[in-house]
């Protein structure tokens, strides 16, 4: 059931727009900490589509992502902290991938933001956000992808010098933040990317829905592509769901 990702080189991960969330306060910048106690916070849904190199085309739908969590967690916990289960369904309504993210409390020493990923019920790896002052290293955000043996296989980094605000003029609209994907053995040459894409002025200003373009590493297998896709969901919760 990993055939859906086997031949995919480029993809778009698009979040479902929840009309009940249009009344919530949103900011034109990514934010690590949001506002809890939102009665309109709904379970997130995402769709993964095949795309092209420039992410200008939305092709065949590959997977549906559905957050499974309680109303209490969504109300009391900001997105970057709350725990949830993410279920991924394919075209035939099979459940190839699932992910588990525990509740994360930043002030607790052993509470580290991470998400474990499973394929057909078997553990295949995890996504972890290291506890470090990335801004002091010239980085906006950093996460690591581990395989089933808990070995780092990919480092994903976003540089600090990027357009992180929603700039609007008669000729220019930009709110794109790029994450470079590096092989763990080569942290200089990027082999893929995850890019936060502009999702329309109305969506950006009045909702928390986002979309991302993904360029998978050329030599990545289907399991690794699944982990990278889950890392994109993880990024959304850590930064963009809070704003």
Characterize the structure shown.
This is Phospholipid scramblase. GO terms for molecular function: phospholipid scramblase activity. Pfam families: Scramblase. One of its GO terms (cellular component) is plasma membrane. It contains 4 helices and 14 strands. The protein has 243 residues and is mainly beta. The chain has one domain (3-240): Alpha-Beta Barrel (Tubby Protein, Chain A), CATH 3.20.90. A hairpin with a 4-residue loop joins strand 10 and strand 11 (173-174). The radius of gyration is 17 Å and the shape is globular. The N and C termini lie far apart (34 Å). Residues 166-173 have low confidence and may be disordered.
Produce the secondary structure layout.
Elements: H1 3-6, E1 10-15, E2 45-50, E3 61-68, H2 71-76, E4 84-89, E5 97-101, E6 114-119, E7 122-128, E8 139-147, E9 152-159, E10 167-168, E11 173-174, E12 177-183, E13 186-197, H3 201-206, E14 211-215, H4 222-240
Antiparallel strand pairs: 1-2, 1-14, 2-3, 3-4, 4-5, 5-6, 6-7, 7-8, 8-9, 9-12, 10-11, 12-13, 13-14
């Amino acid at each position: 059931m990993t055939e859906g990702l086997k031949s995919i080189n480029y993809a778009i991960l698009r979040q479902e727009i929840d009309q009940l969330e249009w009344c919530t306060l949103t900011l034109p910048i990514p934010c690590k900490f949001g506002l809890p106690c939102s009665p309109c916070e709904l379970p997130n849904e995402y769709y993964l589509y095949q795309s092209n190199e420039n992410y200008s085309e939305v092709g065949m739908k590959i997977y549906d992502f559905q957050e499974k969590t309680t109303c209490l967690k969504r109300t009391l916990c900001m997105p970057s902290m709350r725990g949830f289960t993410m279920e991924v369904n394919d075209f035939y309504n099979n459940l190839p991938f699932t992910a588990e993210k525990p509740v994360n409390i930043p002030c607790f020493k052993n509470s580290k933001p991470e998400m474990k990923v499973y394929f057909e019920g078997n553990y295949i790896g995890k996504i972890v956000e290291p506890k470090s002052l990335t801004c002091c290293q010239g980085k906006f955000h950093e996460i690591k992808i581990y395989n089933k043996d808990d070995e780092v296989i990919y480092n994903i980094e976003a540089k600090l010098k990027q357009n992180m605000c929603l700039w609007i003029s008669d000729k220019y609209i930009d709110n794109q933040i790029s994450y470079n994907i590096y092989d763990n053995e080569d942290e200089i040459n990027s082999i893929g990317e995850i890019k936060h894409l502009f999702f329309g002025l109305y969506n950006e200003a009045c909702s928390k829905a986002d979309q991302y373009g993904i360029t998978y590493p050329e030599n990545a297998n289907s399991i690794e592509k699944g982990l990278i896709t889950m890392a994109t969901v993880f990024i959304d919760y850590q930064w963009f769901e809070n704003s």
